[in-house]
Specification:
little secondary structure; 3-stranded antiparallel sheet; 12% helix; 8 helices
Length: 486
Amino acid sequence: MKYASGMALVLALMLTGCGSDEPAAGDGGDARVTDGVVADGGGDGLPPRDGAAPDGDAAIGDGGGDAAPIPPCSRCHGGVANAAPPLSLSGLTATTERGVGAHQSHLRTSTWHAQILCSDCHVVPKNVTDPGHIDSALPAELTFSARAKSDGAQPTWDGLTCAGAYCHGATLSGGTYNVPIWTLVDGSQVVCGTCHGLPPTKNHPNNTNCSMCHGAVVDANRKIINPALHIDGKVDATGGGHPTGWAAGLVHGSAFYQDPNSCKQCHGATLDGDSAKSCNTCHPGWRTNCVFCHGGTDNQTGAPPAAVDGKVATTVPAVGRHTSHVTAGSHPAYDCTVCHVKPTDALSPGHIDPSPGDVVFHGQAAGASYNTSTYTCSNVSCHGNGRGSNGSALWVGSLSGGCSACHDAASDGSSMTLSGRHRKHIVGEGIGCATCHNCVVSNNTTISNGANHVNGSIQVCGPAINSYNPVTSSCSPACHGSERWF
């Protein structure tokens, strides 16, 4: 680094640096190197130089051998506050002078970027007489170190401008001022969007809320809250934009359900990647796997529990009686399409939003309705008496079981509402249910074949039944001749 010419300056510095007129620290005199920091006893400090001694007017070096004693750097350039110009070696102070320029903007403590050291742009000598330091003509050489080359940057200096430097966004995109003029010190570099787009335009979420991914660096108002983490050679993406506990699958589903558009900002419109990974990378087939977001606890149909927020209690509307409906038992296992529009893809229009799931009845439940305030299904054939009088059922909580929950039953002696000649056969003749419906029940209380029960049709079958015509409602059983049921 060339700061002056000739050894005369060296001798002058050594004489004034070691003479009896050296002012004491803190008396307002020239700065001294104390604990590795150029200080004036009260002014602003400069970060330690490479090789700075820990205390006193130590030599820049190891303090032994032939190391030439050197007074503080500010003996030649800089001033009381720190050793970076102003003053320049020529005694100039204007930032429009190349020897002054933006030194102070770089080296002083900043509210928006990490501390910059002399060694980031120059080779800092260990000894005042090191070759290349004061033995050749000005101007000083620039030798960029690791920070300016971060992220693969290739900085250059043409005597007036810095180009290709990491510090000024060379590896980012969309910046408005990536090649700053050294002698133009107007504060323009402070503005977000100068070094990189707002947001960056290449491989980056289209979001101006920087704190979503960089919350340790900047707040929601785009104010830098930790300068040490900004322009420090690394990208700090604490949390990566994900909520706390993201590793848990339930957090995945819940967050995606609440705001899938926020996921698209990083993962693309179809979540197949963009500035981030494709969701398929970790979750192949997730878009057609209902259990990814809900269900999976009682069965693998995708029906809750668990709900998208992880709840499993049947008193929660999002859970309710899903399990009893999609599981075969006293009735067939009902498909989701009976009560919902079943999407072909997780991203199908209308499928994902923060509102409760839409209930749209189809098939044998067509014409029914659901009250989202009372959580009640009404006019549902599935809960009717089998005669066209559809019933109602509460979706949440416990359900009273038994045949009489939907229609009168032989088991409890009731038959008034059963169709046709049920009363005559059950009460008058003592005939049990299995005589005419043995492909459904095995006795008056046991359903033996749920697939034939509450399936949208009435099954008349049994050893005593020769034939039954559902159109004419007539039967020809072994016990008597052909008769009409109604």
